[in-house]
Write a structure and sequence with these properties.
This protein is of the alpha/beta class and 422 residues long. It has an 8-stranded parallel beta sheet, sandwiched between helices. An 8-stranded mixed beta sheet has the order 10-9-8-11-12-15-14-13. Helix content is 45%, strand content 15%. Helix 3 runs parallel beside helix 15, helix 8 (182-205) packs across helix 15 (353-373) and helix 15 (353-373) packs antiparallel against helix 16 (386-400). The protein is globular, with a radius of gyration of 22 Å. It starts with 7 loop residues before the first strand and ends in a 7-residue tail after the last helix. The structure holds ligand ARJ. Ligand ARJ binds at residues 56, 58, 60-61, 129-130, 154-155, 188, 192, 196, 299, 345, 350-351, 356, 359.
């Protein structure tokens, strides 16, 4: 099987037909992005643009990729996580003449080789999830930044880092914070992460969640979504936090809040959603119950200290796909899912298409915004406009067939009237 050419490197081009079926399934559930595809395939707002993308290769991403192409751009793609590429989807894209360098299970060196390939493509726009491509182009290929009009960033962790980089004066082109659009974080991060993380845990373990002590580290938008769904599945949800307001929100949601030191000995399932490193570490592994399941849904694989787990374990083996058993000196077994990488993308298929529809519509519109205005933007991180949010939400509601009220003229006047009281 020819799987490497100048234009692509994928695991198995023979999987293209299966990948195409998945992409078609996603298309049927991404009406907003498909409507934008239809509109922009006529006007071609990205004509002349070269997009380098570094984002999980899933069926939903494929719909975005083919929409960017329909809008007139050329592009080159790499995955943003060694375990999240769906090989059949990557093959389908390669088969459709899309330059793509991504396969499941790549090592770190290969990961950066793929990003480097996308930079060889001389991008005018970059699209990231986790900012690895932006970091790489700044660090290793700074000369390539000159051609870049701007970039977009998909996720919380990436946006945090890019804001820090901009504050340090190190960012060499403008970036749109797609994550911070309301139609992204308030849906993708909450409902997307909630459902897909449980999907990953269930595919990797097949355990009953009802009655389990389910520990969620981090009660941000992602943690909140996971907690909500775990609670719905009948688990006793426990949250750990470092931020007082977030902890208080969890308390008022009826969730037990305690420290990880306390939670470690009572949890049955642990999931990290913090963006911080070493949230679960040696002292926690040592006090865990026999059979404890641990996983992560944050962007990077540093939230569980796996080196320490490997150090203290007397043996380990794979017991199911994406499920590694570690036996500790006290005889207790701990099950690590998806090597501590995003459990929702590594052990399942990522967020459902319906929610990625809005995230990726934001990505597309952000790219078009930079293509049209990039030269007037400063080298900083920009928010998505609230008009874009409202337009996308309106379009999404329309596709679901839901109508909402309109303010009357009198109500519009009332909304800006400060003279009326009791
Ligand atoms: C592509 C996905 C999918 C999916 O938008 C989500 C986010 O912020 C990322 C953190 O790395 C993952 C990304 N995401 C979730 N599900 N990207 N396809 N199906």
């Amino acid at each position: 099987m020819e799987c490497v050419t100048e234009k692509y490197k994928v695991a198995d081009i023979g999987l293209a037909a299966a990948g195409r079926l998945k992409i078609e399934w996603a298309e049927s559930r991404m009406p907003v992005l498909m409507a934008l595809r239809e509109k922009f395939s006529k006007t071609k707002p990205l004509k002349g643009m070269r997009v380098a993308g570094c984002l999980h290769v899933t069926k939903e991403t494929a719909v975005l990729v083919e929409t960017i192409v329909a809008a007139g751009a050329e592009l080159c793609w790499s995955g943003c996580n060694p375990l999240s590429t769906q090989d059949d989807v990557a093959a389908a894209l390669a088969k459709n003449s899309i330059p793509i360098f991504a396969w499941h299970g790549m090592n770190t060196e290969e990961f950066y080789w793929c990003i480097d390939k996308c930079i060889d493509f001389n991008p005018t726009l970059t699209l990231d999830d986790g900012a690895d491509l932006i970091f790489f182009i700044h660090d290793k290929r700074p000369e390539a930044c000159a051609e870049v009009l701007g970039g977009t960033e998909e996720t919380t962790t990436g946006v945090h880092r890019l804001r820090a980089m901009a504050d340090d004066g190190k960012l060499r082109y403008p970036v749109m914070a797609v994550n911070d659009a309301e139609t992204k974080w308030d849906f993708d991060n909450v409902y997307g992460t909630g459902q897909s993380s449980l999907d990953g845990i269930l595919r990797a373990t097949s355990v009953l969640l009802a009655g389990k002590n389910f520990v969620v580290a981090g009660y941000g938008h992602c943690g909140k979504g996971v907690s909500m769904r775990a609670k719905g599945a009948g688990a006793n949800v426990i949250a750990t936090e470092v931020k007082s307001t977030a902890a208080l929100k969890a308390v008022l949601e009826g969730i037990q809040v305690m420290t990880m030191d306390e939670a470690a000995s009572i949890g049955d399932v642990f999931i990290t959603a913090t963006g911080m490193k070493d949230v679960i570490r040696k002292c926690h592994f040592e006090s865990m119950k026999d059979g404890a399941i641990i996983c992560n849904t944050g962007h990077y694989d540093c939230e569980i200290n796996i080196d320490e787990l490997e150090e203290i374990a007397v043996s380990s083996r794979t017991v199911r796909p994406n499920n590694e058993e570690y036996v500790l000196p006290n005889g207790n077994r701990i099950y690590l899912l998806a090597k501590g990488r995003l459990v929702n993308l590594a052990a399942a298929e990522g967020h459902p298409s319906e929610v990625m529809d809005m995230s990726f519509a934001n990505q597309l519109l952000a790219l078009i915004h930079i293509a049209e205005n990039g030269r007037d933007l400063d080298n900083k991180v920009y928010d998505i406009s609230s008009e874009q949010d409202q337009d996308l939400a309106k379009l999404k509601l329309k596709t679901i067939g839901i109508s909402i009220d309109k303010l009357t003229e009198d109500q519009i006047r009332y909304s800006s009237d400060y003279s009326a009281g009791t």
